[in-house]
Write a structure and sequence with these properties.
- By secondary structure, this protein is mainly alpha-helical.
- It is 64% helix and 5% strand.
- The chain contains 8 helices and 2 strands, in the order ααααββαααα.
- A two-stranded antiparallel ribbon has the order 1-2.
- It starts with a helix and ends with a helix.
């Protein structure tokens, strides 16, 4: 995570220029549809498909599905907390240095009216406009990819490639800046390492069984 944070800091000065370059590319057609499809790697549907495949094809690793669930939950919770704490507007606002944190506000146009909103005001119509960092899609891809690499080391290069493609897609589609992607990749990797090595999901499941017994 420290390496990812350092990488994000190094990329920050380039974020605005990269976003403007991607805006000028005007990606559309089949390429856009393919990028939109691939960027869903790591999302809940792909996690379910992977879990079912492991349950059906690899009985020896079925118990580790609890830990895979722990990876997903830990990554999602940590990602949401970081998004709120950082409070970075999406690239569409063309404000790469506009970090508002949990205290500051940012002007958003909601129902035709310009209003000031905090990054945590989910009930205030902010959608995900102030949640650019870290990239949750990249974090989810990294979390699933590195968790699978832990279970199946022979897949590590394929998983790494998918994470890179997902991150590139998020930048090209103007959903995130490069720094957001670097931070998301680090978050997903950290979540996978913690949950898989500590058998987080298995421990929680074991305690729940003990309580219900």
């Amino acid at each position: 995570m420290l390496i990812a944070t350092a990488a994000a800091a190094c990329l920050l000065p380039l974020d605005g220029a990269v976003a403007r370059l991607c805006r000028g590319l005007s990606i559309g057609g089949d390429l856009k549809r393919e990028l939109e499809f691939v960027q869903q790697f790591g999302a809940i549907t792909s996690v379910i498909i992977v879990a079912v495949a492991i349950a059906l094809l690899d009985p020896r690793r079925r118990a580790r599905l609890w830990d895979l669930g722990g990876v997903v939950v830990l990554n999602a919770l940590a990602g949401w907390v970081l998004k709120v704490l950082i409070g970075r507007p999406r690239p569409r606002f063309d404000d790469p240095f506009g970090f508002i944190g949990p205290v500051g506000t940012y002007p958003l146009t909601i129902n035709g009216e310009v209003v000031e909103r905090h990054s945590w005001e989910v009930w205030g119509g902010i959608s995900s406009n102030l949640w650019s960092a870290p990239s949750s899609h990249t974090a989810a891809a990294a979390a699933l990819g590195f968790a699978l690499s832990f279970l199946y080391p022979q897949l590590r290069w394929l998983m790494l490639g998918l994470v890179v493609v997902v991150g590139a897609a998020r930048v090209l589609l103007l959903a995130h800046y490069p720094a957001d992607v670097a931070l998301g990749a680090g978050l997903g990797y950290a979540a996978a390492c913690v949950a898989m090595h500590a058998r987080l999901g298995s421990r929680v499941a074991g305690r729940l069984r003990f309580i219900s017994a």
